[in-house]
Specification:
Length: 448
C-alpha cells in the first residue's frame, strides 16, 4: 500500500492518473452524446420506413427523393456489419425502384410497379413508350422486369382508351335528343358507361371524362324535362335505370324519388331521454316530430322550448293520455285544448298536428278536431313492447319502405340507442327525413 501511495504522489503517477481521468471523461462524454447501437438501429429503421408507403417496406413513396434514400443509406452504414445486411438490401431495392420509377414517370403516374392498375399520363404516345423502354437500366432486377412488362402492355391500353375517347366524342356530338330517339341515346350512354368503368382513374382519360360527364348531365336534364310531358315507355325506363350514372343523378327527382321517412316520438318531453334524442338528430342533421303530453310540458317547459328551437315539430298528444275512444267528445276537446295552451305558453307555437293516445278514437275524433291534422303511423318500432335496442333496430330495419311514418317514444334508453344506430344507416341508404304531412301515407285514423 505504501508503494502505491508513493507511486501516486510521483510525477509518473500523477501523469498516469491524469491520462486515466481524461479517458474516463471521454468515455462518459461518448456514452452521453454518441447514440447506442440500439438507438442507431432504430434511427436507420425510421429513415428506411419513411421511404415507403406500406409497413412491409415494399411500395416506394411516389414522392420520395434521392436525398431521403441517401440519408437512409448513411444511417445504415453507422451500424455494425451484422446489423447492416438486411437493411442494406432494403435500401438497395429502394434505390433500384426509385431509378426505374424515374424512367417510367413520363408514361405513368403514381407507382406503376405496385399499383393494381397503372395510371397512364395524359398525352402519352407510342413513341414515348418506346423511348421510355429503351431508357430502362440494363440490369437483372424484378423492378426492371416489371417495368418492361408494363411498357409492353401500354400500347394496347392506349389503343383501348383512344377508342373510348373516340366513342365519347361521338356521344357528346349528338346535337338533338328527343323522346323519339331517347332510347337509342340511352343505349349508347349505357355502352359508354360500361366501358368507362375500366378506366375511371386514368389521367389519360381526364378530358374525355369531363366531356362525358357534362353530356350525362345534359342527358339527365333532357330526361327530366321529357318526363314532365308524360311517363316513358317501360323499355326506356329500364334502359335509364340500368345505367348507374343516370340512376344516381336522377335520385330525388320525380323519376327516382328518394325513399322518405318521418320520425315521430310520443309521450315526452322527458328530461333524461329527449335531450339524447335531440343530440342524435342534430349530429345527423335530421328533424323529427314530437307528440307531447300537456302535463309534461307544464313540468318541463324548457325542454318543449328546446324541441322547437332546434327546428323540430312539436305536436299535441293530449294532456293526460286517456283513451279517446273511451271518453266523451267534450273530454277529448278539453284534453287537446289544455295541451295546446301548455305548448303555446312554453314555446309560443300552436301545434297543427295531434296524435290520439294509443291511436284510438277513429273518425269521431278526426271530425271533432277538424281544424287540426291527425297523425297515426305505418311502422310501429314496438319500443314500448320490445324494450331492447337491438330488437327495436331490427324491427325498424325489417319494415323499410319508401314511405315510412315511424312511431317511437322518447322515454327510455333502449329507444335512444336504437335511434343512434338506425338513423345514420337510413341516411346512408338515401332516405330523406320529412314531416308526417309530406309523406304519401295520409291515413288519419285506424279502423275501430
Amino acid at each position: 500500500m505504501k508503494f502505491i501511495s508513493e507511486f501516486i504522489k510521483s510525477d509518473v503517477g500523477k501523469i498516469l492518473l491524469s491520462v486515466l481521468g481524461m479517458f474516463l471523461v471521454l468515455g462518459v462524454l461518448y456514452s452521453a452524446f454518441y447514440p447506442s447501437e440500439e438507438e442507431r438501429l432504430q434511427a436507420a429503421q425510421e429513415d428506411i420506413s419513411i421511404l415507403f408507403e406500406d409497413q412491409n417496406n415494399q411500395v416506394l413513396r411516389y414522392d420520395v427523393t434521392q436525398e431521403e434514400i441517401q440519408q437512409a443509406e448513411t444511417s445504415v452504414k453507422k451500424l455494425p456489419s451484422d446489423s447492416r445486411k438486411e437493411l442494406n438490401t432494403t435500401v438497395d431495392e429502394a434505390q433500384t425502384q426509385f431509378e426505374v420509377l424515374e424512367v417510367l414517370s413520363p408514361v405513368f403516374a403514381g407507382n406503376p410497379l405496385m399499383d393494381e392498375v397503372p395510371l397512364v399520363r395524359e398525352g402519352v404516345t407510342p413513341d414515348l413508350i418506346a423511348q421510355t423502354q429503351s431508357a430502362l437500366p440494363d440490369e437483372d432486377s424484378e423492378y426492371v422486369a416489371k417495368a418492361n412488362e408494363l411498357l409492353n402492355q401500354a400500347p394496347g391500353k392506349l389503343k383501348e382508351m383512344d377508342a373510348l375517347r373516340s366513342d365519347i366524342e361521338n356521344f357528346t356530338s349528338i346535337e338533338t335528343v328527343t323522346r323519339s330517339n331517347l332510347y337509342e341515346v340511352i343505349q349508347l350512354a349505357n355502352e359508354l358507361t360500361d366501358q368507362a368503368g375500366h378506366f375511371t382513374d386514368q389521367p389519360y382519360m381526364v378530358q374525355a371524362y369531363d366531356a362525358y360527364h357534362l353530356a350525362m348531365d345534359n342527358l339527365v336534364a333532357t330526361i327530366i324535362n321529357g318526363y314532365s310531358y308524360g311517363n316513358y315507355e317501360q323499355p326506356t325506363l329500364d334502359a335509364i335505370f340500368a345505367n348507374p350514372v343516370l340512376s344516381e343523378r336522377l335520385k330525388g327527382t320525380p323519376l327516382n324519388p328518394s325513399p322518405q321517412i318521418a320520425l315521430t316520438f310520443d309521450d315526452g318531453p322527458n328530461m333524461e331521454y329527449t335531450p339524447q334524442i335531440l343530440e342524435i338528430l342534430a349530429e345527423n342533421g335530421v328533424k323529427a316530430t314530437f307528440f307531447v303530453y300537456g302535463a309534461y310540458v307544464d313540468d318541463h317547459p324548457e325542454m318543449a322550448g328546446r324541441i322547437v328551437e332546434e327546428g323540430h315539430i312539436i305536436a299535441n298528444h293530449s294532456y293526460s293520455h286517456p283513451d279517446f275512444s273511451q271518453i266523451s267528445d267534450e273530454e277529448v276537446i278539453q284534453e287537446i285544448e289544455w295541451t295546446q295552451e301548455s305548448i303555446v305558453d312554453a314555446t309560443g307555437v300552436a301545434p297543427s298536428l295531434y296524435r290520439m293516445p294509443f291511436g284510438a278514437g277513429g273518425p269521431r275524433v278526426v271530425s271533432l278536431l277538424s281544424d287540426m291534422t291527425s297523425i297515426i303511423w305505418n311502422v310501429d318500432s314496438l319500443d314500448w313492447h320490445l324494450q331492447d335496442a337491438e330488437l327495436i333496430y331490427q324491427n325498424v330495419m325489417a319494415n323499410l319502405s319508401n314511405d315510412m311514418l315511424v312511431l317511437m317514444h322518447d322515454t327510455a334508453q333502449y329507444t335512444v340507442d336504437a335511434v343512434a344506430r338506425f338513423v345514420p344507416e337510413l341516411i346512408e341508404q338515401g332516405y330523406e327525413f320529412v314531416t308526417p304531412t309530406e309523406l304519401d301515407f295520409q291515413h288519419r285514423f285506424f279502423a275501430e
